[in-house]
Design a protein that fits this description.
Transcription Regulator spoIIAA; 3 helices; globular; alpha/beta; 98 residues
């Protein structure tokens, strides 16, 4: 991915969960994109959401703030959220925010 955008590819898993594959830059704009895509999970009543961060190449503080807000919102709406392939620096920030 050459540009500074974030792409989110939604997929349904065999167990009925929604999987979001995130690719690119998780900045403020990318966080807004992720918010729009996670709204799909709430609109379609998915109770389990998996977010794969393996292809995230950069994140900023504003993107992480949006991500934390998304995780809180999904959890409060009754979703079980699993994060996959979170790079170590991002995982450290998420651990500190928990």
């Amino acid at each position: 991915m050459d540009d500074m955008t974030l792409r989110v590819t939604p997929r349904s898993s065999a167990g009925g969960a929604l999987e979001l594959v995130v690719e690119g830059y998780l900045d403020d704009e990318g966080g807004a994109t992720l918010i729009r895509e996670t709204a799909t999970a709430r609109a379609t009543d998915h109770r389990k959401v998996t977010i794969d961060f393996g292809a995230v190449t950069l994140f900023t503080c504003s993107g992480v703030r949006r991500l934390i807000a998304i995780l809180d919102e999904l959890t409060q709406s009754g979703c079980r959220v699993d994060l996959r392939a979170v790079h170590h620096p991002l995982q450290r920030i998420l651990d500190l925010a928990a």
